[in-house]
């Protein structure tokens, strides 16, 4: 099964090269892209089953043994992330194909979109599977290079301006990450994460803390935690709907994944737990207050994206099995739900011509299916029982109560407040955009939404509901993954030969 591990990275890269060569054949490009991402989805499912039953699946790239060579590791956490991300990227791809103008118009030529989208997918999966810090950095740079193209797709003035901010912030975080990689290598003589798990423990506490904070700063920018999140609400809403959706669902979660991986494998013990809890609480509260103040649906969703990152950081800060399990469950839930809501925002824009809540209304009457597609994931995001959002938040809040102490109790209160304000924000959108009297221009004829766009969005809504129905088995997977993260031994033994210190 180790031969399957590189495929989620290699297949999209080969597909990107092939679609670039076939830039004049849009139908073939679409078929190749769908085939590549469908293949990655199947491989990811097999890897998750294998990791769950037998432990981490490891491949030594080029036959060079660890810690000398590049290692790709599919443990339960990595395999689960690859599986969910591949399902989301496939649905977003189908949505973009159905959109039509997002692929074939002057603003988004096919020769650019499909190769770049596949490169983005390869970067995301490489980051999840990376077994050393430098390969993790490479994964980030691959996805960021692709995202630079996608976020400015069309070359409009607004997209270039906001895209420039995104590029500058991304380059800054990458420089910080690269500096941290250099410092880690200078201090330990290795970048293999399994080997670092042992060597970092032997460093003086001050040096170890410096390395930890440098990595956290770099990953915090990428994950958009407060106060490093100001760039996100201005950058994401201006991109095309499929691009915004996949960015919202995945790119910040790669940063969260890196925080989970490094804080558990490299820096266990909760040395910065207090800092992480403060950051988590501020991220939740400030983000949702920003969402409540918005009058544009895309910007509102961008602020909720920032806010709910705080739940995941809270789980990491607790560093218990229950906290980590809740954080992983919430990452999986949020990837799906946040992507879905941004796809729905694209459908609203397609049908109403705008996402400005001051200019639209009556969508529940004009497009009832669109109302359903918004209502279900919106209630899921708000944490209404029995949806997966409620179950994920409940798991995190229970872990916070079990931890005891003043700060966890404050975070439990902040999480509850954030959930209530999320419900208020979602209800406000429903009342204004869907329930009140129509405000669409009378000259605009009733439009029929493209079937593939609706179908792809419906599939993601159904996936969110499936997480609710399969919450028991999913929590079992996340609990096992959290246990392995806490123990570290299964990961280290799978990667390193017994005689390597």
Structure description:
The structure is a single chain. The radius of gyration is 22 Å and the shape is globular. The longest helix is centred in the middle third of the chain and has 32 residues, at 157-188. It has helices spanning 7-21, 26-54, 76-99, 101-104, 110-129, 133-151, 157-188, 193-199, 205-223, 232-235, 241-265, 273-292, 297-318, 321-352, 363-366, 368-382, 388-403, 406-435, 451-469, 471-487, 489-495, and strands spanning 57-60, 71-74. The chain is mainly α and 501 residues long. It is built from 21 helices and two strands. Helices cover 76% and strands 2% of the residues. The protein starts with 6 loop residues before the first helix and ends in a 6-residue tail after the last helix. It has a domain at 268-437 and 452-486. Strands 1-2 form a two-stranded antiparallel ribbon. It is a multi-pass membrane protein. Its main location: membrane. Keywords: Cell membrane, Membrane, Transmembrane, Transmembrane helix.
Strand content: under 5%
The largest beta-sheet arranges its strands as 1-2
Ends distance: 27 Å
- The total strand number stands at 2
**Gross morphology:** globular
Show unreliable segments: 101-110
Radius of gyration from CA coordinates? 22 Å
Can you count the helices?
21
Helix percentage range = over 70%
Largest sheet: 2 strands, antiparallel
Protein name: Na+/H+ antiporter subunit D
Keywords: Cell membrane, Membrane, Transmembrane, Transmembrane helix
Main location: membrane
Family: Belongs to the CPA3 antiporters (TC 2.A.63) subunit D family.
């Amino acid at each position: 099964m180790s031969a399957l591990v590189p495929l989620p990275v290699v297949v999209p890269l080969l597909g990107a090269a092939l679609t670039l060569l076939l830039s004049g054949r849009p139908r073939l490009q679409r078929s190749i892209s769908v085939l590549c991402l469908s293949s990655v989805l199947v491989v990811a499912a097999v890897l998750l089953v294998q990791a769950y039953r037998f432990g981490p699946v490891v491949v030594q790239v080029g036959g060079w043994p660890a810690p000398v060579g590049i290692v790709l590791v599919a443990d339960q956490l990595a395999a689960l992330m690859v599986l969910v991300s591949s399902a989301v990227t496939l649905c977003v791809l189908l949505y973009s194909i159905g959109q039509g103008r997002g692929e074939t118009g002057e603003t988004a030529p096919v020769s650019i979109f499909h190769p770049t989208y596949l490169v983005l997918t390869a970067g995301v999966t490489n980051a999840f599977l990376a077994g050393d810090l430098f390969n993790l950095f490479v994964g980030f740079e691959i996805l960021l290079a692709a995202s630079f193209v996608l976020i400015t797709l069309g070359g409009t003035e607004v997209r270039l301006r906001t895209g420039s901010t995104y590029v500058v912030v991304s380059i800054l975080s990458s420089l910080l990450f690269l500096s941290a990689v250099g410092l880690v290598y200078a201090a330990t003589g290795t970048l293999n994460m399994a080997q670092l798990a042992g060597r970092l423990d032997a460093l003086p506490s001050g040096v170890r803390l410096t390395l930890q904070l440098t990595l956290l700063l770099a990953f915090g920018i990428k994950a958009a935690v407060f106060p490093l999140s100001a760039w996100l609400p201005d950058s994401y809403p201006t991109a095309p709907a499929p691009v915004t959706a996949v960015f919202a669902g995945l790119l910040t979660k790669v940063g969260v994944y890196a925080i989970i991986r490094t804080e558990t494998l490299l820096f266990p013990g909760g040395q910065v737990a207090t800092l992480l809890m403060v950051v988590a609480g501020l991220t939740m509260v400030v983000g949702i207050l920003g969402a409540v103040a918005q009058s544009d649906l895309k910007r509102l969703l961008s602020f909720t994206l920032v806010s709910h990152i705080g739940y995941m950081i809270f789980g990491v800060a607790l560093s218990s099995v229950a906290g980590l399990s809740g954080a992983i469950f919430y990452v999986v839930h949020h990837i799906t739900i946040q992507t879905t809501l941004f796809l729905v925002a694209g459908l609203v824009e397609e049908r109403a011509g705008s996402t400005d809540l001051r200019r639209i209304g009556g969508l529940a009457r004009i497009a009832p299916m669109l109302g359903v597609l918004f209502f279900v994931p919106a209630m899921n995001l708000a944490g209404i029982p029995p949806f997966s959002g409620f179950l994920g938040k409940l798991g995190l809040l229970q872990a916070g109560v079990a931890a005891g102490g003043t700060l966890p109790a404050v975070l439990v209160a902040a999480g509850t407040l954030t959930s209530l304000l999320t419900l208020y924000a979602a209800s406000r959108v429903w009342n204004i955009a869907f329930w009140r009297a129509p405000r669409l221009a009378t000259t605009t004829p009733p439009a029929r939404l493209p079937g593939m766009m609706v179908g792809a969005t419906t599939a993601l809504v159904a996936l969110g509901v499936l997480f609710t129905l399969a919450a028991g088995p999913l929590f079992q997977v996340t609990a096992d993954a959290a246990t392995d993260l806490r123990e570290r031994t299964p990961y280290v033994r799978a990667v390193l030969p017994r005689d390597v210190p």
